[in-house]
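Mods, move this if it's the wrong board.
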Amino acid sequence: MRIAVVGAGGVGGYFGARLAAAGNDVTFVARGGHLAAIREKGLTVRSPLGELRVAPGAVVPAIADVEGADLVLVAVKLWDTEDVARQLRSLAESGTAVISLQNGVQKDTVLRRHLPQESVLGGVCYISAFIEEPGVVAHNGTLQRMVFGAYGGKESGPARALLDRCLEAGIDAELSADIERVIWEKFVFLVGLSATTAAVRQPIGVVRGEAGSRSLLHDVMREVVAVGRAKGVALDSGFADDRLAFCDTLPPSMTSSMHNDLERGHRLELAWLSGAVAALGEELGIATPRNRAVADILSPYALGAPAVPEA
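Not the wrong board. Structure tokens:
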């Protein structure tokens, strides 16, 4: 299978490397020092499941350099989605399927503004991985799961083909007949984890262990469920309770990528997480005071560490 991976960071680098190691024709789209390192030495994935190496040369600097693909996996930060969607248009119009593994519930809406509707499949992934150094991706733990499928429960040849390739590559993968619900279920947890660990600036063990921050975690997720249900997504009314119980099973040191980005002074995906919940809530007439508060509290850091004005 010819697969293009747009964004060779933790998510794209890991899954792309696994698919390449299984014999698929994988091309990575990367930039900066990561691009240079992969060109020179290849891509290395360090994982408890075994180290993977992708040979040098399987990387290009731009989507326009991809010479045909059966499927594109999108794994860039959310603020790059609009630009990536425009660049994918010619591939998608020639029959290439597109699956975003990004966070959030607005990613596919953005893609469908620029691409043929039938080319965009829904997808989510569950993994903790990051760029350790240029050309090297580190995988934390053993969780590495993908769920994907066509919207509306339709049959999809590319999705079925990807499932087969994933299973051959040792990736835990599943087709879903209700991918929109799956995306929202992940979103409930993701927003809760991201909002609270970033706002409290502590991992989940601290957040869930204090009554006040635990209440914040539950309320943030409950608001996401309310917004999703108002949009017609088949979320159980008590799903926030389910996710809170799930949070109690997580390693106490676990945190979110948004918390990590905040600590490193990087740009945040805030506008697509708690910010998106607040905006959608306002649009739908659903109160989201906890997510609005988190979005406001973290707003000075949205574009990275703020500069302190001189006196």
